[in-house]
Amino acid sequence: MLEQFTDEADRSDYDAPVRRRRRGRRVLAVVLSLLLLLLAGTAGFVWFLNSKLSNIAQDDLLPTTAAGGTTGGDGGDAGGKPLVTGMGENYLIIGSDARPGDTFSRSDVIIIAHVTEKKDKVYLMHFPRDLYVSIPGKGKDKINAAFAYGGSPLLVRTLQGMLGVKIDHAAKIDFQGFMNMTDAVGGVRVWAEEASDEGTFQVVKGWNDLTGAQALDFVRERKSLSEGDISRGRRQLAFIKALMVKTLSPGVLLNPVKLSHFMEAATSNLVVDRGITPKFMRAQAMSLRDLRADDIVFMTAPFTGFGTAPNGGAIDIVDERRMEELGLALQSDDVAGYLANDK
Fold first, then answer.
1. Which residues form the Cell envelope-related transcriptional attenuator domain (predicted)?
2. Given the DSSP bridges, would you call strands 122-126 and 296-300 parallel, antiparallel or unpaired?
3. pTM
């Protein structure tokens, strides 16, 4: 089942001041800097953004043409169908919980951002880490294992195999970046759908004011939550929304010190593929200058329920029919139609 992300924050008057502030100013959506946060401002804001772009590291996050030219890549496990370059653009955003000294770690946040051809919508699609999928050359496993086996390139190939559509760009941020960005804006106020005990603090059902370290625990927790990995994914989306709202607030946007610290934290913890140059990012920011926060749609990739893998691990079962429909929607740039047909 695929469900568009909603919570009590959507129904409260908490967002009303944000909507009022959005009137009369343009929002620059910096899709590739940390979790697609919206940074608002005038055209002059691009100059400020440009001053921070040199902090961003580049790496080989995409598969080579030989490996990624078809959904099957090496002809192994992902189907082998011709890979379609769809309309619009698809970005993979990876949040990694790598610790110092790790070569590879399992990715904790997997989000595909689809930017429409008209640049009027951005769909953020959360892929639960426990989705049981085919990984090229590795057989069936949880989707986050692809990152552990072969880093971002193998995770890209895995997602392309599921969807049949090309991933155009990729970016990753480690979890230290979550904490630093939260602290840079003075903490965030997040809505929790259910309570949990994080050890050093309690999360209550409802609003929670979190520091960076607390936010890090908040987005990592899953064992005590009612739907495990799925509940954690909803927490991660709630956190993204909270950080967006806080970043858009006058207390951050109109405070040069806070804004500078936030951009420093975001860009210094970000790694992007080699096609994402400062020139490319400036062009993307300008092309998305008319985007508003209401044009960002959160959703969860389709699954039918929960199960157990042959090794005994808990897994989320892919809804194969809806996943194919999602891939076709990405190819035709009609994610809105896909959501409208969701039952």
1. 106-247
2. parallel
3. 0.77
